[in-house]
Amino acid sequence: MWFKRAKPATFWDGQSGPAPERAVAAPKQKLSWFEKRDRRRRRRKTFEEVLGWILVPAFIYLLYLGYKAVGGIPKEVVDFGRELIELGTNSLR
Fold it and tell me: How many Å apart are CA 25 and CA 3, to the nearest integer?
């Protein structure tokens, strides 16, 4: 820490009596390896969900911009897609 924050004056600073008692927090128990792994997984899944909600619309928007920039889908791309579909359906027979 570079800077220390000045503590605000409280009611107890001016009193000449004993300081108020503070509740002593119980020491935290150490997490087991299973609990640590579970927390890491939950954090990772949450991160992946948030990333997905951001990236998927961004990719769709970029595809839309590319489509608009070209002025439509070129005929070669459509023909290539049809060939792939034909190959896929012929392999099922």
Answer: 27
* Residues 73 and 67: beta-carbon distance below 8 Å: yes
pLDDT tens digit string along 8-42?
666 656 555 555 567 677 788 888 888 999 999 99
- Can you give the pTM of this predicted structure? 0.45
User: What are the φ and ψ backbone dihedral angles of 69, each rounded to 5 degrees?
Assistant: -65, -35
DSSP 39-80: HHHHHHHHHHHHHHHHHHHHHHHHHHHHHHHHTS--HHHHHH
Q: Retrieve residue 15's tokens.
A: 């009193």
Overall average pLDDT of the 75-82 stretch: 88
Dihedral sign from CA coordinates of 17, 21, 22, 25: positive
- A 10 A CB-CB count for 44 gives 10
Q: Where are the domains of the chain?
A: 33-92
